[in-house]
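Q: I'm writing up a methods section and want to include an example of the input and output format. Could you take the sequence below and give the corresponding predicted structure tokens, formatted cleanly so I can copy it straight into the document?
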Amino acid sequence: MYEFLAALPAILGILGFVVYLLLRSSGKGDPETLRIVEKLRAQHPEGFATKSKLTSTQLYGLLQRNQTLQREVGNQDFVLLGQALRQQFVKSLVVYIICALLFLVGVALFVYQVNRPAPTSLSNLQVLSSESTSGGLLVDLDALRVTWQADGRASDIVVYLENLDTGQRTRGLLTRSDAGDVSLKHDDYTSILSERRFGQSNRVRVVAQSGERAFYSREFLVQVGLTVLAVAFDKSVKIAAIIDNSLVPGYNFEARLVVPMKGVVDYHSLGGSISGGQQEYPIESTSMYDWASAKIAYLGPDDRRLVRYDIVYE
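A: Here is the clean output for your methods example:
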């Protein structure tokens, strides 16, 4: 489409030139020429009966060669014919120059349009989880990866994540369009998430702004995740369900903590059904256990892909 518009001046130039030639060839001729031809036909009916279609140039040449005819026409009409001929020449020259300029401009625009770099274009904008245990779900406890396909000229772009319910956006991340992806840490986007109930989700999309325009992804659901936290005190261990560093009151779940014992090939297991969001379990002494090797597991009742784990000890 743009290539056609760029070539339009050249097309108009050629078309105008052709139309001008057709009109000139099919017209009745210059009035001064017709008047002189009629005068000569009246005086020499036999000689000019077939010469009514003489052009101004042909008639002027004929009069220049034949002094007798020139005297019959008269010096004034001969001079007027010369002036008309010069005017026709100037008019034709102007038309030819305009058509040539239109043609050259059209060719130049067409070559420029074909060879200029295409503007930056982004497509297939996606949001992916960076956590392998998420099973493809986007969970707000994980880092996210935004990917896209780029075409056209490489340029700087700014990438945002936008909450579709509130319109709030994350801080823009500056990158290059040909980079193909950018990562958002957990703290980069959680401030725009308005829904904070476990098992619910936030509707978001990617916005990528180039110098010319903005590109938008489809809608993605970011699930509200849950952290199962185990905190080791001197004589007890507390297991709790946490969202945004706050206890989830009234949440009943099942979890189990396994921690190796120091100096022996044995481990200690504690946990089970936990009511009200947290449960505390007694131990002999925190120093007896290898907390760096401890593991905790969420056993239900909700989707395990939405759960992450943290163990805190001194």
